[in-house]
Amino acid sequence: MALALHFDARVSDDERRARLYRGEIFVYGPRAATLALCEFARELVRDALAPHDPELAQHALPVERFAALLAELKPRFIHHPESKRLIRAVLAEFGCDPEHTYFDVPRLRTSTSDGYLTSGIAYAFHPHRDTWYSAATCQLNWWLPVFELREDNGLALHPRYWTEPLRNGSRDYDYAEWNRTSRFSAASQIGQDTRRQPKPEEEVDFGGELRPLCPVGGTVLFSGAQLHSSVTNTSGRTRYSIDFRTVHRGDAERGRGAPNVDSCCTGTSLGDFVRCSDLARLPAELIGAHERGLGRRAAGTLGGAT
Fold first, then answer.
1. Model pTM?
2. Which helix (H) or strand (E) segment is 85 a member of?
3. Choices 2.60.120, 2.40.70, 1.10.3470, 2.60.40: CATH for 5-291
4. N or C: lower Cβ tally within 10 Å for the chain?
């Protein structure tokens, strides 16, 4: 199935969301607000890794020390008030309605080179859909490189699987249980990540994958139902990137979103999202409706036990 790839598309947020729910992908060049967000992240990264070049620090530090520095750096970025302010500015610049657009906390991701640290705090993501992790089908993913991106250290999208199911382990994933037992143990997972996460249970065909190479301050925007992964990093440099997610309240209320072709997880991550205008949470009754399956179309059996 052919899917459209848009560059700096001038469309309304309503039209863009509708296209994203159909599997289309949007790539944007740098904008004032995204550049400001990336520069803020760069400042924090440089301070945390000083006196080392952040992209090369892995070659100068024992892996345990590098992981410890990331364990301090990443929560600082996630919970900093400036991060939330800058995310709201990004969404305003992209024309998102602040009264109906909700976002979760931005994550600062790292992908080290040549297998230096691929677990826990620097987890190298296998092919997955966020919907395997209890994301709503109306969730959209925003991804931005913090330093210069290379084809061998970035993000990979696998659009051939937009309508093609993959057998996977989402049947064993419950969002509340993950938060209770695994979410906050990433820093201790060095060498091998023992946390149980939904993964493909059959071979993934990587032919036809997309590796968008936008500059610093550029943005890749795609549906949380799109299969994606971390590119195996062989660049010799650590990749730093930002990602955050949004949902539109009207779409969540009406059950609008991408098709669910293979997810059988339980729970919902909607409780993590706050409104752009005032940082209010989504109503408890709406979160409960999604926990009961609102907007989750039947996934067949490939993600399940039978």
1. 0.91
2. helix 81-93
3. 2.60.120
4. C
- Alpha-carbon gap, residue 244 to 234, rounded angstroms: 25
Domain ranges of the chain: 5-291
The whole-angstrom separation of Cα 220 and Cα 20 is 12
Contact 128, 227 (CB under 8 A): yes
Long-range contacts of 172-176 (CB under 8 A, 24+ apart): 172/196, 172/198, 173/132, 173/133, 173/134, 173/197, 173/198, 173/265, 173/266, 174/134, 174/265, 174/266, 174/267, 175/133, 175/134, 175/265, 175/266, 175/267, 175/268, 175/269, 176/267
The pair phi, psi for residue 251, each rounded to 5°, is -65, -40
Looking at per-residue confidence, does 295 or 298 come out higher?
295
Q: How far apart are CA 192 and CA 31, in angstroms?
A: 38
Nearest to 125 by CA among 207, 62, 197: 197
Q: What is the pLDDT of residues 264-293, one digit of tens each?
A: 999 999 999 999 999 999 999 999 999 988
Contact in structure between 95 and 17 (CB atoms under 8 Å): no
Distance CA 120, CA 110 (A): 11
Average pLDDT, the chain: 91
* Largest distance between two CA atoms of the chain: 54
